Amino acid sequence: MEEFASWRANGRRFTHRGHQIFYRDDGGGADGTLVCIHGFPTASWDWHRVWPGLCERFARVLAPDMIGFGWSAKPRNYLYSIADQADIHENLLREQGIDRFHILAHDYGDTVAQELLARDAERRTAGDESLVVESVCLLNGGLFPETHRPRLVQRLLASPLGPLVSFLATERAYTASLSSVFGPDTKPSREELDQFWTLWCGKRGKRNGHKLIRYMSERRQYRERWVGALRDTQLPVRLIDGLLDPVSGAHMVRRYRELIPNPDVVELPKVGHYPQVEAPADTLTAFLDFHATRVPHRTI
Questions:
Q1: What is the DSSP track for 75-138?
Q2: Given 65, 104, 237, 295, which is the most exposed site by the fewest CB atoms within 10 A?
């Protein structure tokens, strides 16, 4: 629990549309700026097991809690969207005077990364280098709506019963659902599940579950934009995937290999939906290898 408390105590905050956004900002290496984009329904804390290794490699490592998540604001009357979450990351980068960055994303964060890729392509076409994506590494996530297999609670949140499900959600139901997407031999501990629950329901955040889950319909609505951005990019991209994930595991990897030209994929056969939590050493190794072998070296 000390590490969990320390993560929050060492965070910073900036303002987005009048709301406070929590983020971690560390580093010490030479390889520019890395932005870590977390998933649903957790927060930047997801990266804590790989954080020291990331900070050793990169000069700056930024990891916000997106609005509605973790220790960031969770306004009730707010239009939560992938585009707005992408705005948060771009606004933070601009506020920090950063114009080039790498991406490491997971789950919901993969979709945010796809939107950032689409914007990057638009800026490049226009000759605008004010904010440049240099590489993208994706962990398990719903990259293709046709392969996404949402859990029962996600389907309920997205249904007309969503507001009631959000209100009635219990810690037991939440932790059981979250634990089910981990690999059979890499389940989270009771302490870890308590931390995930704290991040979700703090600031009465669980009441917004049915609003945050709209990203599933957005993935269908903007499929051509987001899948196209991933398919057409000329940037270095690697997918690191836990194959035992029932939501976006081996079946999603098969689709990725079908649609993405020259796919760079690292498969983790004994891991579920949270590679950075379940197998941090393997995930970090695969990520750092990607930067050492596929990404042009640039120092600040």
A1: -SS----HHHHHHHHHHHHHHTT--EEEEEE-THHHHHHHHHHHHHHHHHHTT--SSEEEEEEE
A2: 295
Contact in structure between 58 and 31 (CB atoms under 8 Å): yes
pLDDT band at 263 (very low <50, low <70, confident <90, very high): very high
Q: What is the model's pTM?
A: 0.95
Q: What is the mean pLDDT of residues 16-38?
A: 96
Residue 75: other Cβ atoms inside 10 A:
16
In degrees and rounded to multiples of 5, residue 102 shows phi and psi of: -100, 160
The pLDDT tens digits of the residues spanning 137-190 come to 999 999 999 888 777 778 878 787 677 777 677 888 889 989 999 999 999 999
The residue among 161, 171, 139 whose CA lies nearest residue 275 is 139
Structure tokens at 164: 């009631």
- Closest CA relative to residue 236, chosen from 290, 297, 298, 299: 290
pLDDT at position 53 is 98
**Rounded to whole angstroms, how far apart are CA atoms 286 and 263?**
15
Tell me the chain's radius of gyration from C-alpha atoms: 18
Sequence-ordered list of residues with C-beta below 8 angstroms from that of 270, at least 6 positions apart, any chain? 183, 185, 186, 244, 279
Identity (one letter) of the amino acid at 108? Answer: Y
189's tokens: 């501990």
**In sequence order, what are the beta bridge partners of 25?**
62
